[in-house]
Design a protein that fits this description.
single chain, binds magnesium ion, globular, six-stranded mixed beta sheet, 24% strand, four-stranded antiparallel beta sheet, binds adenosine-5'-diphosphate
């Protein structure tokens, strides 16, 4: 029994189409791994299997040795697995602080109450401020989300996800749609994540992937083609072919 996430022999088929093929993957505290692969490779399907949105056809998913493969999405969040909120889930007309209060109240089982009263519950406001500081959003806390730059909105997503205090964090294309002028914000935020968190990043921006990942897993047609250190992956001719093919074909 080991700490962290242990995926073994994971398979998923939609009718006759196999989209996850015998996937094995470990994510341990402190890991910074990236999952890359061309469009349609099965990256989203894999994350949906881990978070419980989809049910695998076969295989096992364990967290700290415990089989979590049959838990609901909400139960997996409670167990410590979180995927980043999507911008589409942000309340854009609410302030950054109010958005952060939502998952903090949720974690405490206080979802029924008005967020304005969050300050009556010990610790919520302290956590709001510390998350704002961690993501360098303190000066923007009272601004509505719609008035933030896109890259900053993506930081709010990340901060809201961390408010759930996950141990396994799945970052789903954190730089997608972020103009390159703001992409250092994302890299900096990932570098500032808690050391002992286990992070899996799915990302198309190879600059960012090579900046933050210690190991890279390459997924093709639902199966792991190879896994290695960034320099090994960069030097792998099969991976080069894949990306040249994807860009030109
Ligand atoms: N609900 C679904 N029903 C049928 N096929 C699906 C479904 N979701 C995804 N797929 C197919 O599974 C394959 C992998 O998709 P996906 O996981 O979204 O890839 P990626 O995220 O790497 O681009 C694709 O061929 C896609 O068309
Ligand atoms: Mg996808």
């Amino acid at each position: 029994m080991s700490a962290g996430l242990e995926v073994r022999g994971l398979n998923k088929a939609f009718g006759g189409l196999t989209v996850a093929r015998d996937i094995n993957l470990d994510l341990n505290p402190g890991d910074r791994k990236a999952l890359i692969g061309p469009n349609g490779a099965g990256k989203s399907t894999f994350t949906n299997l881990i978070t419980g949105i989809l049910e695998p056809s076969s295989g096992s998913i364990r967290l700290d040795g415990r089989d979590i493969g049959r838990l609901s999405e909400a139960q997996r969040v409670k167990a410590g697995i979180a995927k980043t909120f999507q911008i589409t889930n942000l309340f854009k007309s609410l302030t950054v602080r109010d958005n952060l209060r939502l998952p903090l109240l949720e974690r405490r089982g206080l979802t029924g109450r008005p967020i304005r009263r969050a300050d009556r519950d010990g610790g919520v406001e302290d956590e709001v401020e510390s998350l704002l500081a961690q993501f360098r959003l303190s000066d923007l806390g009272d601004r509505t989300v719609q008035r933030l730059a896109y890259g900053q909105q993506r930081l709010v997503e990340m901060a809201m996800t961390l408010a759930l205090k996950p141990r396994i964090l799945i970052l789903d294309e954190p730089a997608a749609g972020v103009p390159s002028s703001e992409s250092p914000l994302i890299a900096e935020a990932i570098a500032g994540l808690p050391q002992d968190l286990a992070v899996l990043i799915i990302e198309h921006d190879m600059g960012l992937v090579f900046q933050v990942a210690q190991r890279i897993i390459v997924l093709v047609a639902g199966a792991i083609l190879t896994e290695g250190r960034p320099e090994e992956i960069a030097a792998d001719p099969r991976v080069r072919d894949l990306y040249l093919g994807a860009h030109h074909g």
